[in-house]
Specification:
Layout: E1 3-4, E2 10-17, E3 22-29, E4 34-38, H1 44-54, E5 57-62, H2 68-71, H3 74-85, E6 91-92, H4 99-103, H5 105-111, E7 131-134, E8 137-143, E9 152-156, E10 161-165, E11 168-169, E12 172-173, H6 183-194, E13 202-205, E14 211-212, H7 213-219
Parallel strand pairs: 4-5, 5-6, 10-13
Antiparallel strand pairs: 1-2, 2-3, 3-4, 7-8, 8-9, 9-10, 11-12, 13-14
The structure holds zinc ion (2 copies).
One zinc ion is lined by residues 65, 67, 147, 166.
Domain Metallo-beta-lactamase: 21-207
Pfam families: Lactamase_B
Cofactor: Zn(2+)
């Protein structure tokens, strides 16, 4: 479980989940230990153990998009935490255009050999310019369609850090051959919305290692022009 410290008060612990090694993360304010879980795709017991080990109180569940490996454990984690805390733990995100994917989670999970995942609905659909709170730390929401129509990115401006789901990876970009994927939309999302945030912005992708927008601008084969 690699830990990183993007900013003095912001802490992040990655918990790889599902056979697709999806980067679920527990992000929290180190002063208050209040935080959120991003993309709980499955392996809910493992996520629950990480939350306990970190001593974090989870106030919300954030979803970057509706694919099963990112959202397939959200329903179970919500129920588990609400029972434990005795208060609501809302699921926030993705954009409404991914609702069809959240509804299909059981079927798509089974097709990839991960049975038993549950469909889930968002308590709050997100759009460009919305904000989500992680403890007292605000993340800006950026709608980045292309990998899926409702993909969103969570950006913490002061910490220079983003959680990007499957929009962008170290050395690659999200696949666009899945339902309602669109390559031109994805490239536009990355080049018009993400890269302008700054070369110094570090990001956690949905799979694989972290990187920075600057490193991807310079060397990502899908973004470098001939
Ligand atoms: Zn995906
Ligand atoms: Zn994924």
């Amino acid at each position: 479980m690699p830990d990183s410290a993007p900013e003095p008060r912001l802490r992040l612990a990655v918990v790889p989940v599902t056979p697709l090694e999806q980067n679920c993360a527990v992000i929290f304010d180190e002063v208050t230990h209040r935080g959120a879980v991003t993309d709980p795709g499955g392996d809910v017991a493992t996520i629950r153990r990480a939350i306990g080990d970190l001593g974090v109180t989870v106030e919300r569940i954030l979803l970057t998009h509706g694919h099963f490996d990112h959202a397939g454990g959200a329903a179970d984690l919500k129920v588990l935490l609400e029972r434990e805390y005795g208060r609501p733990v809302p699921i926030e995100g993705p954009h409404r255009d991914d609702s069809f994917l959240l509804e299909r989670i059981p079927e798509s999970g089974a097709r990839w050999g991960v049975p038993g995942l549950k469909a889930v609905a968002s308590d709050r659909w997100l759009d460009d310019g919305d904000r989500v709170e992680v403890g007292d730390i605000a993340f800006e929401v950026i709608h980045c369609p292309g990998h899926s129509p409702g993909s969103v990115v969570f950006f913490q401006r002061e910490a220079r850090f983003a959680i990007v789901g499957d929009v962008l990876f170290a050395g690659s970009i999200g696949r666009t051959d899945l339902p309602r994927g669109n390559h031109a939309d994805l490239i536009a999302s990355i080049t018009d919305k993400l890269l302008p945030l700054g070369d110094d912005v570090g990001f956690l992708p949905g799979h694989g290692p972290t990187s920075t927008f600057g490193a991807e601008r310079a060397s990502n084969p899908f973004l470098v022009e001939d």
